[in-house]
Write the structure tokens for this entry.
Amino acid sequence: MRVALMATCIGDTMFPDVAQATVRLLERLGVEVDVPPAQTCCGQPMINTGYFDEAEPVVRSYARTFADHEAVVLPSGSCAGSVRHQHGIIARRSGDADLVAAVDRHGPRAYELSEFLVDVLGMTDVGASFPHAVAYHPTCHSLRMLGVGDRPRRLLEAVRGLELVDLPQERECCGFGGTFAVKNADVSAAMGQDKAAHAVASGAEVLVAGDSSCLMQIGGILSRQGSGVRTMHLAEVLAATEEVPA
């Protein structure tokens, strides 16, 4: 099977290791991976703040870039949610029937990483090894917009040596929310501090999530506190093996 990887803006600029881990993981599972160089932002920052006209060229770019791929894998519930649910809003608003048709075609082909592994490849045991105590944070868009459910937990439970511990109040938002963190900085910081405290209380060595933006929010706080708890993307844990540890 051949798929495209959408590295995402934050992955490309700040967390390239996540995109690289996603490619290693998929290739280990026999998937051929393209990384189209023409890819840009998913458009979510503009859409969420009401800049619909500015988002339209971005949606058009996505439709062109990924038109010929049978599946697009995104290591981000946030970006996958935008492609699947928000692109249609922009396309219909444009009044361009061709763009609407393109979005209707490409939307169902966009998969958050855990969805692709479980639903498309039919796998929960991906041959990973990670001998650490891990808490999982279900990010807002993956939980509420995509409904990934227990797929990430099932993948983590199958990792050799991994101890999955409960995260107190795991369904609470980390407070990042993209532009929310800028417009409501004090509230965002308070929410992040609560999430960081829960991570420490869990007893986990590593806090894992499927969105780098959330990990940036929580990880920054944990680091400044000197908590000893580190953060990792789900892709990095699943890409780890006994031969190539994380």
